[in-house]
Amino acid sequence: MSTTKDEIADSNSNYMEIEIAKQNVARLQFISLFSIQLLFVIISINIYSHYFAKVDYNDFKIYLPSYIFALFAHMLLLFVTQHFKHKQNFTIENARQFQKILITYIWSILITSCFISTLDHTLYKHIVIYLVYLLSCTAFLVITLKKILPPVLISTSVLCWAIIVDDSFHSYGQGNLMLLLTLTEIILILGYFNGRVLRSNLLQHQELLGERNRSKDLTEALQTAAHTDELTNLANRRGYLHRMQSIDQKLPIQMTVLIIDIDFFKKYNDFYGHAYGDVVLAKVAATLHLLCAQPNRFAVRWGGEEFLILLENHSEQEIHEFYNDFITAIEKYDIQHATSNVSEHLTFSVGGNTQFITDFEEMNSCILHADEAQYMVKRSRKDGFLLMEEGDVIYMSDIIMQTQLRNLLASKSF
């Protein structure tokens, strides 16, 4: 039980990790697109002002490398997020790989924006760039406090120190410092609750999916039970009707119906007991289940000791192979039948009919002909196989033929 709980816990943890990674891929893609546009505009303005407007920017050569680095970093990040976003099967390995990329991005962009805002504070009296990326990394992306705190604390501390030691601290530096500390605290709190709400929603969604899957499994189990014979695990009459609904979509089709009846089964039950009779039925059903594993074959417990087989688009040779495989498999069980009139072992009367089916009524006709063929076997001697096509006999076992011939000669001599 503990192992099962551990597996469930691992599964839940993996699900959360994968879904959060998917969320971060989408969010980081948005940040990349926004940053590329923003940085391109800023770089363009700086280049225009320095070279064309003849504004003397002493800081131009310091700013430009930082902006260009951030621009190319976000271009690369856009490519990476596109790669992860188009993965058809997002695995836990993908999630952990992306987590490493995300942490690397947060460290690099916070340090870069911290450097830019240090210059901005000195030259232009604001720290907007750092606050923008602090907000996007902390409150917009979903990441645990344990992983976001180190880069946030280090970059914020560096910027605070730069503001304090700057000559303008007593004029406008104190306002920037208070703004930085207050917003950092607020943004961290927002990021914490953002992650908590998302995890709660994902957990509820997972529980909903679990309930839905359990309900689906239960419904399928109930339907299977309703369509399955309890003793043999083969389809019952209701299962046969359900199968016919799917066959109805394939019409017209060539259908072969075989009806298999265990010879002298009442005597078997009376002599060996019903418990052994149930074992025999189970062995016959297991054999039919294996032989009907192909999608164009279907086995039904038709009633008592009688089984019905549907063979779709089988040639006459394939029908004979099916019958021979069935008899050979049963003979391996070596089931004794001391009260049989025809053999010391279990035998079967098998009748079949092949017919081109175009509607449900013709299916009933095909079954009636197969039943007629099986009755001819039982009336002749049992322990044999007779096959019809459209109600006309096309094959009968040698032993049935000999019995029919003896009956004919006896009637003539009489």
Automatic annotation (TrEMBL):
<feature type="transmembrane region" description="Helical">
    <location>
        <begin position="62"/>
        <end position="80"/>
    </location>
</feature>
<feature type="transmembrane region" description="Helical">
    <location>
        <begin position="30"/>
        <end position="50"/>
    </location>
</feature>
<dbReference type="InterPro" id="IPR029787">
    <property type="entry name" value="Nucleotide_cyclase"/>
</dbReference>
<dbReference type="GO" id="GO:0052621">
    <property type="term" value="F:diguanylate cyclase activity"/>
</dbReference>
<keyword id="KW-0808">Transferase</keyword>
<dbReference type="Pfam" id="PF00990">
    <property type="entry name" value="GGDEF"/>
</dbReference>
<keyword id="KW-0548">Nucleotidyltransferase</keyword>
<keyword id="KW-1133">Transmembrane helix</keyword>
<feature type="transmembrane region" description="Helical">
    <location>
        <begin position="124"/>
        <end position="143"/>
    </location>
</feature>
<feature type="domain" description="GGDEF">
    <location>
        <begin position="253"/>
        <end position="390"/>
    </location>
</feature>
<feature type="transmembrane region" description="Helical">
    <location>
        <begin position="101"/>
        <end position="118"/>
    </location>
</feature>
<dbReference type="InterPro" id="IPR043128">
    <property type="entry name" value="Rev_trsase/Diguanyl_cyclase"/>
</dbReference>
<protein>
    <submittedName>
        <fullName>Diguanylate cyclase (GGDEF)-like protein</fullName>
        <ecNumber>2.7.7.65</ecNumber>
    </submittedName>
</protein>
<feature type="transmembrane region" description="Helical">
    <location>
        <begin position="177"/>
        <end position="195"/>
    </location>
</feature>
<keyword id="KW-0472">Membrane</keyword>
<keyword id="KW-0812">Transmembrane</keyword>
<dbReference type="InterPro" id="IPR000160">
    <property type="entry name" value="GGDEF_dom"/>
</dbReference>
<feature type="transmembrane region" description="Helical">
    <location>
        <begin position="148"/>
        <end position="165"/>
    </location>
</feature>
<dbReference type="InterPro" id="IPR050469">
    <property type="entry name" value="Diguanylate_Cyclase"/>
</dbReference>
